[in-house]
């Protein structure tokens, strides 16, 4: 009886040690080595690894703690990869294994990382302020915040952005002319960064012109 009990314990121990989370794992398929997170930004990660002797790989990724089989799966023959379309300020995990074809897969290696906060490529102007006002003009200024070109949009109070009058400026100030007397205007400014697009609009500046 003792021999049978000892044999049952030994078998259970051996089975537990050899069990793998993925039934397709093959010990003859060498796992990748030295997985490395090389570059992270707000929406992407670039990572690399050593082959371990194999030439095809599969990785799965998702937010940290995701269940294998529920993530995004990629097949590749590269030893580095750029994953994009990620969410800013989010923790992720990558599970990587070799794909040995008919011989199955290796065991996984894994890495974790956190994406960065989104950084605007075009700085929003700040401190939009009134300089002068007459019956037909409004002079304004703003802080440039390292940009060199701006777009000013204005219209009667309550207008919808995109339907107003637009002016371009290469100086952090402008004089808006040909306005109506005793009229209240809303004014917005955003930076024009060329191929990097536009910044967000500044908070509105509300000004009423003088009477005629």
Describe the structure.
With 212 residues, this protein is mostly beta strands. The chain folds into two domains: 91 residues, Immunoglobulins (Immunoglobulin-like); 83 residues, Immunoglobulin-like (Sandwich), CATH 2.60.40. It contains one helix and 14 strands; from the N terminus they run H-E-E-E-E-E-E-E-E-E-E-E-E-E-E. A four-stranded antiparallel β-sheet has the order 4-3-6-7, with no helix packed on it. It starts with a helix and ends with a strand. 17% of the residues are buried. The N terminus is likely disordered.
Outline the fold blueprint:
Blueprint lengths: L1 H17 L14 E8 L4 E6 L6 E7 L8 E5 L3 E4 L7 E8 L10 E6 L11 E8 L4 E6 L6 E7 L8 E5 L3 E4 L7 E8 L13 E4 L4
Antiparallel strand pairs: 1-2, 2-5, 3-4, 3-6, 6-7, 8-9, 9-12, 10-11, 10-13, 13-14
Beta-strand content estimate: 35-45%
CATH topology (level 3) name of the largest domain? Immunoglobulin-like
What about the largest sheet?
4 strands, antiparallel
CATH class assignment of the largest domain: Mainly Beta
* Record field, number of beta strands: 14
What gap, in angstroms, lies between the N and C termini? 111 Å
CATH superfamily of the largest domain: Immunoglobulins
**Count of individual domains:** 2
Q: Which secondary-structure class do the elements indicate?
A: mainly beta
- Point out poorly predicted stretches: 1-23
Question: Which terms would index this structure?
Answer:
four-stranded antiparallel sheet; 212 residues; mainly beta
């Amino acid at each position: 009886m003792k021999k049978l009990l000892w044999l049952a314990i030994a078998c259970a121990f051996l089975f537990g040690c050899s069990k793998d989370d993925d039934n397709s794992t093959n010990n003859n398929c060498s796992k990748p080595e030295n997985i490395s997170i090389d570059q992270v930004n707000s929406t992407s990660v670039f990572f690399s690894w050593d082959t371990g002797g194999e030439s095809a790989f599969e990785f799965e990724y998702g937010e940290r703690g995701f269940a294998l089989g529920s993530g995004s799966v990629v097949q590749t023959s590269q030893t580095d990869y750029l994953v994009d379309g990620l969410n800013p300020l989010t923790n992720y995990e990558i599970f990587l294994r070799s794909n040995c074809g008919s011989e199955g897969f290796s065991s996984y290696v894994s890495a974790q990382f956190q994406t960065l906060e989104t950084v605007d490529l075009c700085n929003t102007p700040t401190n939009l302020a009134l300089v002068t006002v007459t019956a037909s003009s409004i002079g304004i200024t703003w802080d440039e915040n390292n940009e060199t070109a701006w777009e000013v949009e204005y219209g009667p109070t309550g207008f919808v952005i995109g339907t107003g009058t637009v002016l371009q400026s290469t100086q952090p100030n402008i004089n808006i002319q040909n306005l109506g007397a005793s009229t209240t205007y809303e004014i917005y400014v955003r930076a024009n960064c060329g191929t990097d697009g536009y910044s967000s609009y500044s908070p509105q500046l509300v000004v009423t012109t003088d009477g005629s």
